[in-house]
Amino acid sequence: MLRDPQTRVEFRRNASAGFSLIELLITVSIILIIAAIAIPNFLRSKLVANEASAVQNLRNITTAVAIYNETWDNGYPPALSSLGGTGTLATCDQSNLVDPVLSTAPYTKSGYVLGYAGKGGTVAVGQGCGNPGFWRYLITAAPQSKGLTGNRSFCSDSQGVIHYDYSGLPAGSESACEALTALQ
Questions:
Q1: Mean pLDDT computed over 95-99
Q2: Which of 80, 95, 115, 153 could, after both became Cys, cross-link 140 (CB 3.0–4.6 A)?
């Protein structure tokens, strides 16, 4: 039985109109291989970015604490919330020195939980201040979930040097913070 030439042309067009199953499987496997390479690198870069943000937040808070100490004659701030504020008029209790995200509970930013503790006893309450400040302080930044939001924890105290720890746990005291490796 002979086929006419017109039927052969239509048959060829229909056979080559789409992808074969093998071509589709190869394309999907190439995409999966690229994703397997890219996703771990993306997660690593996110961890590094979170750590860099935590260090910068500690630097900002350390600078704000020093400015608070010099400005309000109330020692170091009584709480992290004293460094924030949303009004245009800065006061001892809301000094407008840091971003409200850093000075508002739950004190988390970029996958890190920030902590602040006054140390060394309280000073005499400064004029216009609601609470007495402290002689010294300890600031900590610990990952919310070690390995997912960050690998290292960071701390700084009255000396202003930022230290880090691979345990991911916040330093419990000034001496524990100072015993850690200083950030270069």
A1: 93
A2: 115
